[in-house]
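[recover] target loaded
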C-alpha cells in the first residue's frame, strides 16, 4: 500500500512546476500571437472587401463625350459646348515649383506620413471641439440651451 498512487495522478509522481517565461520570451510570444491574429484579420478584411471592388482592366479606357465648337464664317472660335478636356500633362513637363506649390497647399507633411496624417486628424478634432460653432458644437449643446427651444 506504500506504493499506492492517487487516482488522478495517472501513475506518475508529482510533476515539477513549469518554468516561467522571461520577459523577452513573453514579448516574443505575444508579438507572434498578435501577429498571427493581425494576419488573420488582414486576410479576412481583404477577402470581404475585395469581392465588391470594380474591375481594373478598363481603368484607363476613358470614354469622354465630344464637345462641339462653334465657328464663325472666318473660322474664329465663337463658343464651345460640352465638356472640355485638356490632354494629360506629364509631371516632369511642369516647372519644379508647381508640384511643390500643390504639396505646400494641400499637405506640408506629405513626404513624412503614410497616406494620411494622424496628428493632423487629432489636431483638427481638437480645433473643432474648442470652437463654439462647427461640427462638434451640436453634440456639446444641451437641449435647454439650444436657440431653437429657448423663448
Amino acid at each position: 500500500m506504500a506504493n499506492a498512487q492517487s487516482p488522478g495522478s495517472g501513475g506518475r509522481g508529482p510533476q515539477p512546476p513549469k518554468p516561467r517565461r522571461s520577459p523577452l520570451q513573453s514579448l516574443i510570444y505575444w508579438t507572434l500571437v498578435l501577429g498571427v491574429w493581425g494576419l488573420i484579420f488582414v486576410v479576412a478584411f481583404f477577402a470581404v472587401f475585395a469581392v465588391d471592388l470594380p474591375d481594373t482592366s478598363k481603368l484607363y479606357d476613358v470614354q469622354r463625350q465630344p464637345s462641339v465648337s462653334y465657328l464663325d464664317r472666318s473660322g474664329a472660335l465663337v463658343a464651345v459646348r460640352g465638356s472640355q478636356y485638356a490632354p494629360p500633362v506629364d509631371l516632369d513637363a511642369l516647372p519644379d515649383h508647381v508640384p511643390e506649390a500643390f504639396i505646400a497647399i494641400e499637405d506640408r507633411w506629405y513626404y513624412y506620413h503614410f497616406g494620411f496624417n494622424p496628428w493632423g486628424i487629432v489636431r483638427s478634432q481638437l480645433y473643432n471641439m474648442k470652437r463654439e460653432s462647427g461640427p462638434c458644437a451640436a453634440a456639446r449643446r444641451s437641449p435647454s440651451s439650444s436657440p431653437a427651444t429657448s423663448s
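[recover] notes: The chain has a mean pLDDT of 81.
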